[in-house]
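Slide 14.
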Amino acid sequence: MKKLLFVTALMSSLIALSAEARDQIRIVGSSTVYPFATVAAEEFGTKTDFRTPIVESTGTGGGMKLFCSGVGEEFPDITNASRKIKESEVQLCKVNGVNDIIEVKIGFDGIAIANSSEADHYKLTREQLFNALAKRVVRDGKLVENNYKRWNEIDATLPDKKIEVYGPPPTSGTRDAFVEIVMEPVCIEIPEFVKEIPDEEIRRKVCHEIREDGEYVESGENDNLIVQKLKNNHDALGIFGFSFLEQNSDTLQGSYVDNVDPTFENIHDGKYPVSRSLYIYVKGEHLDTIAGLKEFVKEFTSEDALSDEGYLSLKGLIPMKEEDRVKIREEVNK
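Slide 15: predicted structure.
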């Protein structure tokens, strides 16, 4: 027993020393949050004597796996996320000794359904999006594998164009948010789904399934790649974070969803239906061992960064209300 306790203590000391040996913050995670984290990192490197943090775009799911892999120098200090952490990810963290997970909301983002500004300007409903992208749909009163091929087959008012949508893979937080905000509310109470799949939890999973027959094209974790594809393919639509639409507003246009335009104001006011919160998750075990980590979190949550006129708002982040920003700063600066 004494030997076991000695080995355990020794391992803990080695982990702590390993963490202390690194003098540069490492950040992974969401491609949507990546531009904001990068700007915050650059500001931090300019304003302080600490080294500029390393920021990698791995996708929300990929970032969570890396973040939850363990404590110590070889593991990330922060993961960016375009959705809340899942319970399964919390459990993975615990298994690997990551017990102090600090959730920090940084603002809001809309999920744009966009296309080339040289093409038709789409006005879509969530029901139409579901019927275009779901793996299973109702046709002629029956639950069938999705066989819609053109937009006007779904609704005669839509363009006579092939359904072709570039979007994120299952590991993406944008994908998670899209299916939860758009697909699930439409699908969950459809009588044919309820009749065939009475268990609500199983039905919810089925509602989240996106077709795999070519109309939806998984385009990796890089939203910029989707943007470039839309510039080259004027018949296609793409799904990505609002900030990428705003940065490319000279060549791309956002589709109306349920008669609401994806604008900064509409997302900020809660009118645009396809919006979500954005987060960073900080590894509490690293706060006292990784140089500058506490100070970087303070910078990321400062008024300079998150206010209505902050540098992240100028980059496209939709700011929270002032009282919410104050509350978050009080929590992280305890």
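Speaker note: Residues 2-7, 16-20 have pLDDT under 50 and may be disordered.
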